[in-house]
Protein: Ribosome biogenesis regulatory protein
Organism: Drosophila melanogaster
Amino acid sequence: MRPWMQKWVPTYGFKRAEAEKAKDWVLEVPQNADPNTDMFQKKIDLRNEKVAKNEIQRMKNIVRAKKIDMPRSGYLGPEAASSSQLLTAVTVAKSSTASVGKFQNKLPKEKEARGLGIKELIPGGKRKQSHITQTPEKEANLDLIKSVLNKKPKLDVSKAVSMEKRDNRLAREAEGENEPGKKGGKKPKGKGSRKAVGKKSKGNRGQRAPAKKAQAGRKRR
């Protein structure tokens, strides 16, 4: 619902554009602006600029999410590029001449790009020779090898004690299995290993006299 039109208008398509024109049929011109400036065209340009800026930021977010390296050289535009990227682009552009930028004029407050990997981007730059000679480098490598070979391993006391206890327990279990007569040990084979099997003896059990009869009488309580 558009209050200035007193009717419902869709939020997309040509009807929306017509509704916007009906709303902004007149625009105020600022006092410090040129009176001949087309404010309608200026509004359209600002909107297109915002859309492009949002699109660039969206692409940057995708690159950052996928962990892709962005180009450090080149011109990305003042709206998209940072100050360090602009300095890098200017430094590389000035160095891309036949004189490698030695005869290029500089601005009064111009700064040079600094940081890791900047010199690799400048064409014609030569790598400086290392100030370390062969003898100190050889001695440094030998010292490193000696320190690695003479390094003593760290002793874990708790781990060593637990391993010693484990070895003692396994040794006791092995001795217990080899000794006969103990629980879990092997029984010896051969004669005399088994007990003699026979009839059980009758302890303190004799036969009653057949002539003797039980005396009948009153039972006592």
Summary: The chain is about 40% helix and 0% strand. The chain has a mean pLDDT of 73. Residues 181 and 187 are 7 Å apart (CA to CA).
